[in-house]
Specification:
globular, 11% strand, six-stranded parallel β-sheet, TIM Barrel, single chain, 317 residues
């Protein structure tokens, strides 16, 4: 029995994660669907013994808008992106009073549900869905954002130990700040060129196309990794679990086969495999997406029984 590990992380962000290019009218069904998907995903995790990290945008911890506004860093330490549409602060005026009246921007009840499910870790996705590599961001603004994200979680009795960087953007100075603030693990990117960190304008059509082909074929390799035992650990992503929806639904079985192949390689060779997605990816066609996730979790159970593969969050309990 060679073991290996399956790590799952979810970028939990609701509308904060897509507001620069989508709104309630165009994407609201996905966001509301995520609220239905999260309890269903948690039930599956509990049934199959899955540990996972929920990298949560700090604003979602807030019970109401007053609490949210009180959590903001000083104006001078907020991001000043060259593309103003990227800033979450641009949309504060449209945020409602609380979670009941604005389920798109608040998520405290969902966080409570996650915390109550065995094996689940709450990590951070920064306070404001901060983009580290975009023009106009600054390391002091990132530090202020992360400090505020940790503080709002601490007030809820949650200790933050892991981070997933929004849009997978980071550089060594951001890692140094995380380490200094007590973060012990981060989700790095796969080594292949198509997955390297970069700002939005660097995500060319070629890179996107190559990632799409890889997701359905494994052409760039299994993207397994050797587990990092450092005190500040890189837990690199292997693959994004793409949603079964729209035009790509018909080739989703090929995507699942590629993921299962990567998991199997990790189990047989004692390596790690790290799946990630956003709950709002399941917001439409929920039943089809849950069926796909169930297949993957059943594959994990077989690999656990045959090879001793284990499930863990980014920071093991």
């Amino acid at each position: 029995m060679t073991g290996g590990e399956l790590v799952i992380s979810l970028d939990f962000e609701l509308l904060w994660g897509v507001r620069d290019h989508a709104d309630r009218e165009g994407y609201g069904r996905n966001i509301l669907g995520a609220r239905e998907a999260i309890p269903r995903i948690l039930d599956l995790f509990a049934r199959h013994g899955i540990h996972a990290t929920w990298a949560t945008v700090g604003f979602l911890f807030c019970e109401n808008k007053d609490e949210l506004m009180a959590a903001l860093p000083p104006t001078a330490l907020r991001p000043r992106y060259a593309n103003a549409a990227l800033s979450a602060y641009r949309y504060l005026s449209e945020v409602g009073a609380d979670e009941v009246r604005d389920p798109y921007y608040f998520g405290a009840s969902l966080i409570d549900r996650i915390v109550k499910t065995p094996g689940q870790e709450i990590g951070t996705h920064t306070l404001s869905h901060f983009y580290c590599l975009e023009d106009g961001s600054a390391t002091d603004a990132f530090a202020a954002d992360l400090r505020a994200a940790i503080a709002v979680a601490t007030r809820k009795g949650i200790t933050i130990r892991s981070i997933v960087f929004p849009r997978n953007q980071y550089a060594p100075p951001h890692l140094d700040i995380c380490r200094q603030m007590g973060i012990t693990a981060y989700r790095g990117n796969p080594a292949a060129w198509a997955y390297r960190p970069g700002k939005g304008t660097e995500q060319t059509s070629l890179r996107r196309a190559l990632r799409l082909v890889d997701a359905h074929s494994g052409i760039l390799g299994a993207q397994t990794y050797r587990p990092d035992t450092a005190t500040f650990a890189n837990v690199p992503a292997s693959q994004f679990l793409r949603p079964c929806t729209g035009r790509l639904a018909r080739i989703h079985p090929a995507h699942l086969r590629a993921l299962k192949a990567g998991m199997t390689k990790a189990a047989r060779e004692g390596l790690g495999y790290h799946l990630w997605w956003h709950p709002h990816n399941f917001g439409r066609d929920l039943e089809a997406n849950l069926r796909g996730l169930t297949q993957l979790l059943e594959t994990f159970e077989r690999l656990r029984d045959a090879h001793g593969m284990r499930s863990r969050a980014m920071v093991p309990a």
